[in-house]
Task: inverse folding
């Protein structure tokens, strides 16, 4: 019984330490953020693993940050499109890892009116279904498409260049399995696509923070 209590106390201390560390990381990050910053992470799912294989990148998910009622929120295309408190969003990533990037000369380019329009576009997309087919329509939307279109529609800025589905590495078994499940034999190889990695590698962005 005594050893059980010691073990319980030990594990409780570990949990409290982990929570404290996560809170500290988020608090430090919040001091560096600006409206319109783009944040990347990797999450665990079959699709995310396939995205990483197809793009040769460690990042499979991306969102865009705006302050909403004095709280930093990540606007993200999941199911459905929603805004998630930054601190919660970080914990959804593998090992709480993230990378924060910002538009070059953001202070000059992203005026308050443009930022307001960007956030308004984000709000207009809330509740939309996640697009599992990665089509370029506006009816449904996926994560990197949401971020790309917010910048394009509000500021006329292309964060990364659009590619066709055929341009990605589609040879791995897991990628081909998911494509067969989604498309059957009618794979839209010519569909325009933007991946999280395309945003991450854009020369229009600079790295602000990484954990």
Result:
């Amino acid at each position: 019984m005594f050893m059980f209590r010691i073990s319980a106390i030990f594990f409780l201390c570990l949990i409290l330490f982990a929570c404290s560390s996560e809170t500290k990381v988020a608090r430090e990050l919040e001091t560096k953020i600006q409206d319109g910053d783009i944040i990347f992470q990797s999450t665990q799912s079959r699709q995310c693993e396939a995205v990483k294989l197809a793009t040769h990148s460690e990042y499979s998910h991306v969102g865009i940050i705006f302050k909403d009622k004095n709280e930093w929120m990540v606007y993200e295309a999941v199911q459905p499109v929603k805004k998630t408190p930054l601190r919660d969003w970080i914990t959804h990533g593998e090992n709480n890892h993230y990378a924060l990037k910002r538009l070059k000369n953001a202070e000059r380019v992203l005026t308050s009116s443009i930022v307001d329009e960007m956030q308004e576009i984000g709000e207009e997309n809330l509740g939309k279904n996640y697009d599992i087919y990665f089509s370029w329509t506006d009816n449904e939307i996926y994560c990197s498409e949401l971020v790309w279109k917010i910048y394009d529609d509000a500021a006329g800025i292309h964060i990364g260049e659009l590619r066709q589905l055929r341009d990605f590495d589609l040879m791995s078994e897991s990628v081909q399995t998911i494509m067969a499940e989604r498309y059957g034999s009618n794979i839209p190889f010519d569909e325009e696509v933007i991946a999280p990695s395309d945003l991450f590698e854009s020369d229009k962005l600079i790295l602000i923070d990484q954990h």
User: Anything to note?
Assistant: The longest strand covers residues 61-68. The longest helix spans residues 2-30.
